[in-house]
Amino acid sequence: MTRHQQYIGLLLIGLTVVFVWSAIAPRDLFTWFLEAFPVIIALPLLVFTYRRFRLTDLVYGLIFLHAVVLLVGAHYTYAEVPLFDTLQQAFGLERNHYDRVGHVAQGFFPAIVVREILLRRSPLKVGRWLFFLVVCVCLAFSAFYEMIEWWVALGSGSEAVAFLATQGDVWDTQWDMFLALLGAITSLLLLSASHDRQLRRLGG
Question: Would you tell me which of 14, 53, 107, 190 could form a disulfide with 180, CB atoms 3.0–4.6 Å apart?
Fold first, then answer.
């Protein structure tokens, strides 16, 4: 077994453990399903495409971390993660900020995934246009996710309160998209060089 295979195996085991924990007695089952749905869809897709379109180790690691963020939020709901309740009380914060962390993650982790797909499946090369378009895709995805929240709220009424996690902030939607934007830009600034090295080793 190669080092890469060991790495992927560890990620799969870790994700399975977190997924099972998240699914056991979540705070709100409806919210759990909504928040865990991206993981439920993405994991089989990644397994199915592994041999035909293997991603870099960096991307697999980022997907794993994003899945953990989603599954923790799914288990507790984003407005009630205990550690962030403690931080809220300790620092006199107005809200549980796990939801904010989740939306930074919504830009930070997918940015390198989008970057890899564009570099390997489009004519784009490393440069300003790649940076700009990756950020645009991440921001568009964030905006689309806000529309999904809106549609779920219209369809389910009060059951969607935990999913929305606005915590009384009238500007919550704008904050969510702004933080995803910052997350994407930060990810590209911090991780692009490492990503390029891994792509060269992969032959991408």
Answer: 107
* Token output for 53: 């379109």
Q: Which domain holds residue 97?
A: 3-196
Q: Please report the pLDDT score of residue 204 as a whole number.
A: 45
Q: Summarize the confidence of residues 39-57 as an average pLDDT.
A: 94
Q: Answer whether residue 201 is part of any domain.
A: no
- Please tell me the total number of residues recorded for the chain in this structure: 204
Total count of domains within the chain:
1
pLDDT at position 152, please? 76
- 64 assigned to some structural domain: yes
3-23 and 29-49 helices, crossing angle to 10°: 160
Angle between helices 3-23 and 57-76 (to 10 degrees): 10
Cβ contact 36:22 at 8 Å = yes
H-helix segments, the chain: 3-23, 29-49, 57-76, 82-91, 98-121, 128-156, 161-164, 172-202
Residue 157 has which token pair? Answer: 């009424």
Tokens of 135: 């950020």
Structure tokens at 13: 């085991």
In a domain, 68, yes or no: yes
The answer as to whether 49 is a domain residue is yes
Mind giving me the DSSP string for 134-153?
HHHHHHHHHHHHHHHHHHHH
The region that residue 203 occupies, defined by phi over 0 for left and psi between -120 and 50 for alpha, beta otherwise, is: left
